[in-house]
Task: inverse folding
């Protein structure tokens, strides 16, 4: 083949410019920045783990791991000190379970409406408004839970026999806080389901609700699971709401109407104290932080396994 001028083209018989062999210095720079970001993420995670592990090793050299994990009394500042972390774990479990009971139904309901039923114009208006909830400072949520939900709603309106603090108030408001996380990610997952699957379901005689529940929801299940697990991780790691509204009394929580101190609440309160650096009381912060890190890491592993198990490719 020859060019319009009659000159032969060597190595490119089609006469077209190859885009794959053309040097792209800007692309190489962007790829290098991506690699640096990936390595920095791993290095920062490793640094956090080391920073937690070193003081924790000093703590567990004095306190047996079994006593720490299964002890039922948490009193690191008393003369007869005790370091059983179960009271903190039970309060964390209560607030997380209550938050999920609030966030999952409302979050998935909002996602289904925005993805399947809302008019595009309505979706463009409602979704940013919903996501505004995620931008409210958590300290505002905390005082809202303490002053309005706990005092006005629970004690005055509903006449519940609660104390000044309760894990119920903290859990409910924390659930409201993570609704945007679950709703937004779930809506993205459902919107990514091909329209052809909806059309095929309708062609078989299914109505809108049947298509949503039996076709769209199962097809987007991996993304929905990821959204719920992300909400769980955020609920477990939330600090200001539980530090303000759940209470500061570390005890085994047997009812949502009781107050209790969570793991993050203890870390927030103890970090503001006058514990001497290197003391056993100071090292408890890192031991609890390491346990919180391990729980969050376990949740992420479970999330990855479930997403891979239910992932659908289209």
Result:
């Amino acid at each position: 083949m020859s060019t319009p001028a009659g000159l032969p083209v060597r190595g490119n018989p089609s006469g077209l410019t190859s885009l794959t062999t053309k040097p792209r210095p800007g692309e190489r720079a962007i790829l290098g920045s991506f690699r640096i970001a990936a390595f920095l993420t791993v290095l920062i995670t490793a640094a956090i783990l080391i920073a937690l592990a070193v003081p924790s090793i000093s703590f567990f050299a004095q306190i047996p791991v079994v006593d720490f994990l299964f002890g039922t009394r948490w009193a690191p500042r008393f003369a007869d000190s005790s370091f059983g972390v179960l009271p903190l774990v039970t309060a964390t479990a209560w607030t997380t379970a209550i938050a999920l009971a609030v966030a999952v139904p409302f979050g998935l309901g909002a996602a289904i409406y925005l993805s399947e039923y809302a008019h595009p114009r309505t979706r463009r208006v409602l979704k940013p408004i919903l996501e505004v909830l995620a931008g409210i400072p958590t300290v505002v949520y905390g005082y809202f839970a303490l002053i309005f939900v706990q005092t006005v709603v629970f004690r005055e309106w509903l006449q519940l026999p609660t104390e000044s603090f309760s894990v119920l108030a903290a859990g409910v408001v924390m659930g409201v806080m993570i609704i945007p996380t679950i709703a937004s990610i779930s809506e993205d997952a459902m919107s990514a389901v091909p329209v052809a699957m909806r059309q095929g379901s309708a062609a078989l005689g299914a109505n809108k609700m049947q298509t949503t529940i039996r076709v769209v929801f199962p097809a987007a299940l991996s993304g929905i699971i990821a959204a719920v697990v992300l909400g769980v991780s955020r609920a477990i790691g939330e600090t200001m709401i539980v530090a303000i509204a759940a209470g500061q009394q570390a005890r085994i929580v047997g009812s949502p109407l009781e107050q209790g101190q969570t793991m993050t609440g203890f870390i927030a309160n103890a970090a503001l104290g006058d514990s001497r650096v290197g003391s056993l009381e100071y090292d408890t912060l890192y031991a609890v932080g390491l346990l919180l890190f391990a729980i969050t890491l376990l949740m992420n592993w479970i999330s990855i396994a479930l997403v891979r198990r239910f992932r659908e490719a289209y």
In short: Residues 74-310 form a domain with the MetI-like fold fold (CATH 1.10.3720.10). The chain has one domain: 74-310.
